[in-house]
Amino acid sequence: MDRLIYLYGLAQTEETASQPLPSLKGFDDIGDLYNVPIGKLTAIVCSLDAEEYAEESIKDRINNDMEWLQEKAFHHHEMVMKLAKMYTLIPLKFCTLYKSEDSLKMAVQSNEAKMLDTFAFITGNEEWNVKIYCEDEQLKKEVSENNPTIEAKRAEISQLPRGKQFFEKKKLDKVIASELEEEKNKVSEHIHSRLSEFAVQGNVKRTWSSEVTGRQEEMTWNGVYLISKSKVEDFLKQIQQYEKDMKEKGWQFQASGPWPAYHFSSFS
Asked: Which of 50, 126, 147, 261 has a 20 to 30 A CA-CA distance from 82?
């Protein structure tokens, strides 16, 4: 019976040799995860029935079976999290499949130098995510009252005849909205720059809409940071200080981690 290889992640062989893999059920909830040593690297995988998990079958389930997708995506996430607590791990994306162990070995061997460089980069570090939210109405009030551009526009409008003031005030609302966005970007960029000082590397991700977050406040920034374990405590203290100092102005912070190094490692 033909079998496919489902790849969860790559670890360093010296680490997997010193800490054996525990009994963990694989993607099909039947077979266990196991190691495939490939020189200095070890692939952590499970075996799947080639017919049941063929590419077209997987695509169909992903597109049409939300319950299956949620269950399997959660399984993948949980396995990667468990493995990342045991080893320095290069995590793989959901449903990374190979036709055989030989094709997996060829792919790993052809990328070995890059993967070893990646391990050197991520070893001893943790990935953390920081999302910044802002309550627009609170910040809008402050911007409206303290922004020089808006103050100048108000003074200009006050000198106009009453009839023209109405239309100019409408324009002023647009100016306030523009200044609000500029202020949010400026503050978020400053915070990102400061947090990046604690990090080996800091990257910016796409922000999420309130439909996705389920929050009333708008997400203004979404950053990921690779941080030395020795600096994580100071990094989190800085975020707590921002939360304390900026809460009254409508700013909120959400730090989460440590995560597997999804954003600072890759394997094609």
From this structure: 50
